[in-house]
User: Fold these one by one.
Assistant:
Number 1:
Amino acid sequence: MTVTAGTRVLALLGDPVAHSASPMIQNAAFQRTGVDGVYVAVRCAADDLIGFMKGLARAGGGGNVTLPHKEKAASLLDQRTEAVRRTGACNTFWGDEAGRLHGDNTDVAGFRRAVRGFLGRDPKGARVLLLGAGGAARAALLGLVEGGVDEVLVYNRTQERARAIARRIGGDRARVAASLRALEGEDFDLVVNATRLGLEPSDPTPLDLAVLQRAGAAMDVVYGRHVTAFVASAKAAGVRATDGLEMLVQQGAASFERWWGTDAPIDDMRRAIEAVAVA
Ligand code: NAP
């Protein structure tokens, strides 16, 4: 790939960004498809976000936004997708010819595509337990509702946050579990971990799946070079489980499609992330 004066610049904006796999995933995709772009990671303070986003978009580029700026990015946009409006977060931005700043939250499509791949179908009619109520949980809840779930029970350490996302995103499809104890003996088609637990290899699992009467499958949004505690606990309980790597690939693919208007080379992106994950 030759970088010229006409090359579009796409940047990941966040703090920290040094350990992100996105540059490897996106540049592998740019190379495979031959699009004229380069993807870089830029450590960015909250006050600099608006300047970077507008400047990059007006120059014909765009990028991704990661922690801790996804909510602020959503507030800076001129045009928001439904996913941004409903989750209050933006992780992908680009510009148009009129100089307007557009944004999407591709964590929603990424989660939905990853679930579909894992289950072999949309979670239509499923009963799901969702652990967590932060940014990833909001994206997961919207993805589940869009996928046609019958019911989502949301459990979060801070109950008020669970109530807020259930009300705002889940509508009549979501209920809140008051405690982990209240989950004992329950039956779910799918259990999703969208808490941070598992990020560190020493983290405990957010839930011992053996306390449930049944868990059809378990999906973690957390990923790392180690097996996450939730995936390990699910497998120990005999439950089919997967971590958040496929969601990461799929949200990157959905971002790629927003910037370039063409299908993303998923297999190359998957290979790029596997190379990072085992490095
Ligand atoms: P966040 O907004 O900070 O939310 C963190 C969540 O974890 C909250 O529900 C929080 O509960 C819960 N939590 C934190 N510490 C806990 C503990 N000790 N015990 C129980 N619950 C705890 O973070 P986020 O953006 O949602 O990210 C969560 C995870 O998802 C991260 O590991 C991130 O890397 C991952 N993620 C993955 C993808 C992907 O593509 N695979 C995309 C986005 C995020 P409280 O509300 O009680 O604090």
Number 2:
Amino acid sequence: MSDIIQLLPEAIANQIAAGEVIQRPASVVKELMENSIDAGSTAVTLILKNSGKTLIQIIDNGKGMSETDARMSFERHATSKIKEAKDLFSIKTMGFRGEALASIASIAEVEMKTRPEDEDMATHITIKSSDLIDQTYCQAEPGTSIAVKNLFFNVPARKKFLKTDSVELKYILEEFKRIALAHCDLKFKVIHNDNEVYNLSAGSLKKRVINLFRKTYEDKIVRVDEETDIINISGLVGSPEIARKQKGEQYIFVNKRFIKSHYLNHAIKMAYESLLSDDQHPFYILFLEIDPERIDINVHPTKQEIKFDDERVIYNYLKVSVKHALGRYSLSPKLDFENEDSNLLDRSNLAAQGRKPSAHFSNTRASTTRTAPVMRNWQSLYSGLEEFSLEDDDSGAEQLDLTIPSAATGDLLGAFNPLENEVKAPLQLHNTFVVIQIKSGFLLIHQHYAHQRILYERYLHKLNKREELVQKQLFPISLQIGKDKKDVFADLIPSLNKLGFEIQAFGGDTFVVHGIPAGFQDNNLQEVIDGLIEQFIENKNLSISKNENLARSMAQSAAMKSGKSLTEEEMTQLIDELFACEMPYTNPSGKKCFLTFELKDLEKEFN
Ligand code: ADP
Ligand code: MG
């Protein structure tokens, strides 16, 4: 038999590669803009005609290419970004496969002008279907301009599958947004059919968000900013008010590269807890910075999926960071951005003391000297809170006990810093609310909801942990549980015993309690347990785990009620404990635990 295997002609090989890398005009925009950024540009202009179907041109002021490089750049696997296989594991540039230009040139007509700063003339190259049409010199500013005309002109099947102009433009602008968000320090301009769509100056992320999304987001976004040994997380998250019914305004970047991850989206959604219903999607733009050696970005040809060495650790860090930011927002929505550069987070303080909010946060925190009475009990509150598990997540994550940074609540307490100078005792109103002064105004705390939150978190942590519990032994008390509820209750006994109860079935409707969790009031146990079972049955309609339901029901039933008079001591403890919570601002079912009143706003009311 004669030999039949041949090497594919280069142009066809390029077209096949293009099938993977270039699906639509938006893919060209992405690849070319990434190249401009890799080339160190500070300003990038994108010019489009007919949603990129006729023309996509990118003009940058980056380092340009020499004559030889300009020609080489269109060869497949031609890249200046990796030299050895090991470089693959520490990629810091956006591109590295050396495929984009070759692919684009195989399915379009490409005209490139490029000039390094130290050369007088630019190289001018025209390539069509991988064929060099023309190579000359021309006058041009330093940098590179690449015009891609008539995309897919020689791949009719592809061309046919392009969507309408408005849809293709949407795809392009989406790619553009991702890049513009990740590079706020660069100037960008977008011109479509001679109309300016965006003209973005270099500046803060917040400014960019306002320009790319809505001006009204200005005081509804809050900064996220956490540094740990493994990962840095920064960016902006939206308050629940700007959550939307459609997904979309959600961006996660890993080392400035946009990625898609249902798993990490889930972590963020979890941070909002009951603030959002299932069909509401929060706004966020989050940047994860992690050692490139700890991730694998090359699992997908267009590089939007990513593998982390330890995904579950990242999950928890992310969740806690977002919770932390939301907690700060709830204290004072305006606090965060009054002055972008000022250190409202007390970060300079942390830095000055040479410590980061790290996995040992609770310990380091204990060594600082905060004097405000409002915080005097916090040390004891931290113990036992520094671990939590993923048991209730429906993401399919295995259960995990993991030490995470308790920074979530640390800075929240920092908001009380102003009290260090002038301390006012809390005040109770109508045996229902507690008022506490903060620097910018005052908080009005709902004692019942606040206490529910505190107990809920405490119980949930205990249920998810296997720890010895402090228990108070009782002279046995018997409980009568209604016939219809008896089975539900019997089912709950092992979990209740985990919380510190010691309950036994005694036959019939009778149960005997020998012990209760330390700190639990035993004076109306029958009432509390009845309330607990009722709540538990009611909450079964919610899609929450059994542990979460139990923690919720216990909290709802056992929390101090409105109408209970509190001593100053008790009020202070309530405030301390509330703000040591991971999510202090609502009770487990989403009701606000406190309201914030700003002096500025109050002044206005009197005008
Ligand atoms: P990759 O980005 O994966 O290296 P590309 O095909 O996108 O592959 O680009 C090939 C090479 O061409 C790059 O490695 C870079 O050296 C050069 N290049 C492409 N675009 C530009 C640009 N705008 N400015 C300077 N150099 C560029
Ligand atoms: Mg590239």
